[in-house]
Structure prediction request, 221 residues.
Amino acid sequence: MTLVGFGCSFTYGSELIDPKLQDVWDRHTDNTLYREQCSWLGQLAQRLNTKAINLAEPASSNYSIQEKFSDYVHDNDCTSTAICVGWTSHMRHSWWSDADCRWVHDGFIRHEQEELFKDSFKEWLLLSHERSINVTRSAKLFVSAVCEQRNIPLIQFDALPNIKSDITPFHQQGRNMHEVLEQEGKRLDKEFLALGGHPNEAGHAHYAKLLHGWIKAKNLV
Prediction:
């Protein structure tokens, strides 16, 4: 079995930096193995004695998560796959660039780190921003329906504050990873969040432990 993960920076593993690469925020090539092994997805794979494929992207929206999931399921044999989704904030949006063959997320446009789709972003804010809830609701329904129809195990939760839905299975419905780690850190007198607000190594490991217990209790894989 292979865990295939989708999500935003909380699944990608932002701020998880190999100590050998100090003073570097995120050198993708050199830091990838460490980051993926220390993320909740990598930690969960270790607990389940399996491997993981991390397809998350920092600042990703739920719309792009849905699309990336659709592409993966369409292009791959998923008979020995478990889908893992850390849903991001419903207030995000993304656009696909045919020219660059990549997703452009509004988080980077908002902070002027991205030149593409600035006009589209402004129009979305003006005309379609209120549809964010519906986009996330549709994305969650789509992923859940496809996994159910194809008998693919689904492990999902909200990584950031999100809309509540009645979809099952869903880990800690009504809560999110950031909130849980913040509260668990206070309860256990431990630091589970890095300076930038993302989970640190201990935070990812702790959340993987919580997920693992829930998966076993629900007999999901």
About this structure: The chain has a mean pLDDT of 94. Residues 48 and 216 are 10 Å apart (CA to CA). The first strand starts at residue 2 and ends at 7. Residues 2-218 form a domain with the Rossmann fold fold (CATH 3.40.50).
